[in-house]
Amino acid sequence: MDILEYRDYCLSLPFVEESTPFDETTLVFKVGGRMFTYAGMEDFRRLAVKCDPDEAVGLRERYEGVEAAWHGNKRHWNDLYVDRDLSDAFVREQIRRSYMLVLRHNVTPRTLRDEMLAHVARHGLPE
To answer: Where on the tree of life does the source sit, at the highest rank (predicted)?
Structure first.
């Protein structure tokens, strides 16, 4: 996966916003105003995804290309090193999981969250 494929995939998810709130080179994707993944545009070797804390540790133990996020809360964020033999399908699955985790638990107000979840339930997410 390269930076353009990453960007295209993230933008294919419903209600996603793209921004660069930290600097001109860090691409951030949000759902409902909440960040679910980010990556550096200049040297796209890794991207960060939000994770359930128990799952985050298990993924780090299982995959060489998964580590605690360099610039994120180590308990809730993993870095996926796309140059370390992680399949595109695995990376997309982790992005989807991050998206759904943030959508279910971080988007407020509740009425907005419920509307967005209903849309996703009806239409699904891209593979």
So the answer is: Bacteria
pLDDT in tens, 64-106: 999 999 888 888 999 999 999 899 999 999 999 999 999 999 9
Whole-number CA gyration radius for the chain: 14
User: Residue 78's closest CA among 37, 107, 45?
Assistant: 37
Token pair belonging to 7: 């960007």
124's tokens: 């699904």
pLDDT tier for residue 127 given thresholds of 50, 70 and 90: confident
Write down the pTM of the prediction: 0.94
Torsion from C-alpha of 19, 42, 51, 13, nearest 10 degrees: 50
Residue 76 DSSP SS3: coil
